[in-house]
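agent> Task received from the user: take the single chain below, predict its 3D structure, and emit structure tokens. No templates, no multimer pairing.
agent> Plan: (1) validate residues, (2) run structure prediction, (3) serialize to tokens, (4) report one or two observations.
agent> Step 1 OK, no nonstandard residues flagged.
tool_call: predict_structure(input=
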Amino acid sequence: MARHVYRCSLRWSDMDAFGHVNNVVFLRYLEEARIDLMFRLAREDGSASFSGGSVVARHEIDYLRPLVHRHEPVIIESWVAGITAASVTIAYEIKDSEDNGSVTGTVYARAKTLVVPYDLKAQRPRRITDEEQAFLEGFREEGQVPAGREGSRRGGSRGGAGSASSGALVV
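)
tool_result: status=success, residues=171
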């Protein structure tokens, strides 16, 4: 498995009144790493993966340690934790780099994001293309059994940015 490694600089404005990086900012860090993986790397690989659109249907995040502002960037490792016919789960660790002089291996957060390919013109979810699947397979977690491409799981109504215009999202 190849993990995508993204170096994310911290900004002074990322801190909250308690002197550590605000919980919402962690989601922005994940977004930066995910966009770098799914768009920049895919394009460099010659793939138009997800350029037609995608939406976030769900985030899960475990905050493990407070992160305070410093000049050294944090490392965000991301990988594919699962693929279905109509969704991909990206997993992450936000941690120190091994060369920043602090405690090696300090992990600040672990997270997962469920991303659904989305047809922007039709305003509805769509299936993952073979090209997208091939690109994502390069970042699949070892030991993960590939999901069948013959069907999809159905989810109930979801709120937020992951909602289709009908109020239900098929993933």
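agent> Step 4: summary for the user.
The longest strand covers residues 107-119.
agent> Done.
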